[in-house]
Design brief:
The structure is a single chain. With 346 residues, the protein is α/β, with parallel strands linked by helices. Among the domains are: 3-93, Gyrase A, domain 2 (2-Layer Sandwich); 225-337, Isoleucyl-tRNA Synthetase, Domain 1, CATH 1.10.730. It is 45% helix and 12% strand. It is built from eleven helices and seven strands. It has helices at residues 3-19, 48-56, 60-72, 95-107, 132-146, 195-203, 225-245, 262-269, 271-280, 284-301, 315-337; strands at 44-46, 77-83, 87-92, 120-126, 151-156, 159-162, 173-179. Strands 6-5-4-7 form a four-stranded mixed beta sheet, covered by helices on one side.
């Protein structure tokens, strides 16, 4: 079960409680689920009971008790505990992480791709003169919106051409436009940074921020987000080579006997939603920041993958390796969409 699916499960529990007369409240449009905070437990937590308590005229504890019973009965949920004033801590069946890993391994770099925006066309206006940031953002948008089945129609002055270079702008529904002529430009030429660091420097900042073009994008240390993303990917590849030397390979199995890294599972499960959001909101920076979050969660998990000392490789090690390789697949796929190389050695 992904965070999006769990959010729907929570909302369904609210709706059924309202229908049964146990709660008198408007069903919210969204239920936030996240990693449990201090004192929490399980795989995910939600504050939906605290959110609904005042409009329902009930205590958060009462609302949490009502929802716990209904959420606990949902398929894929192993149990629900209430902590603090009314936080719901949800544990999922142990098969859920394995299913997520299997899906990523099956889809490879296309994990998160969908037809959600099929047939739609986004018109993007570019400055008449070459401007590095506008050009790089437009190029990334062509790739990102294509993952959701849409196309980009690039326009420069009186000239126009399709992102697919087929000149067929008449086929597809125009869903709006994006004027990159208003994007704050790069303060100076990013070319000396090299193609990868230059693209990251131009794509990572939010659209309203002016990019920083400096040597900080080249340093190989934790302070550099691009380094962390590429290093996390390279480490997942190195783990695969090290595991082969130890005589075992990855298998997307049960992670019950292994620590389940909730932040990593959250980031992987949330990738399709983030990718759709980056396409819908025409925002490559959302994908870049998501890759940093995924990389940090991956780096925190990787020390647990290989056997330690005289420990023999087990099913848990194979399952952890499969999870690490799945993370590497998503990192490499995301970097590719930004037009950035993912080196196996760093």
């Amino acid at each position: 079960m992904t965070p999006v699916e769990l959010s729907r499960t929570v909302l369904c529990a609210v709706r059924r409680a309202v229908d049964a007369g146990e709660l008198s409240v408007a069903v919210p449009a969204r239920a936030v689920v996240a990693a449990p905070g201090p004192g929490g437990s399980g795989d995910y937590a939600t504050n939906i009971a605290l959110q609904l308590a005042r409009p329902a005229g009930r205590t958060p504890r009462y609302v949490a008790e009502v929802l716990r019973e209904r959420i606990s009965a949902a398929p894929g949920v192993r149990g629900v505990e209430i902590t603090g004033p009314g936080f719901l801590n949800i544990s999922l069946d142990s098969a859920a992480p394995a299913a997520l890993v299997q899906e990523i391994r099956a889809r490879g770099p296309r994990y998160g791709h969908s037809g959600a925006l099929a047939g739609q066309v986004l018109s993007v206006r570019l400055p008449v003169a070459y401007e590095p940031r506008a050009e790089v953002v437009a190029d990334a948008l062509v790739r990102i919106v294509a993952t959701q089945g849409a196309r980009v129609h690039l326009q420069r002055g009186a000239d126009a051409y399709d992102g697919d270079h087929d000149g067929d702008h008449d086929h597809g529904r125009d869903v709006g436009s994006l004027d990159l002529r208003t994007l704050p430009p790069a303060p100076r030429d990013p070319t000396p940074l090299g193609p990868d660091a230059a693209r990251w420097a131009l794509l990572h900042p939010a659209p309203h921020d002016r990019p920083r073009i400096g040597a900080e994008h080249l340093v190989q240390r934790e302070s550099n987000p691009l380094f962390r993303v590429r290093y996390a990917y390279a480490r997942t590849r190195a783990l695969g080579r090290n595991a082969a030397d130890l005589g075992f390979t990855a298998h997307a199995g049960d992670l019950t006997d292994a620590p389940v890294p909730t932040p990593l599972l959250l980031a992987l499960a949330d990738h399709p939603r983030l990718l759709l959001g980056a396409a819908t909101h025409r925002a490559p920076d959302r994908l870049a920041r998501h890759l940093v979050t995924l990389a940090d969660a991956t780096l925190a998990f990787l020390p647990t993958v290989l056997p330690l000392g005289d420990e023999k490789p087990s099913a848990a090690h194979r399952a952890r390796l499969a999870l690490a390789e799945a993370a590497g697949t998503v990192l490499a796929g995301g970097l590719s969409l930004l037009g950035i190389d993912a080196p196996e050695h760093l």
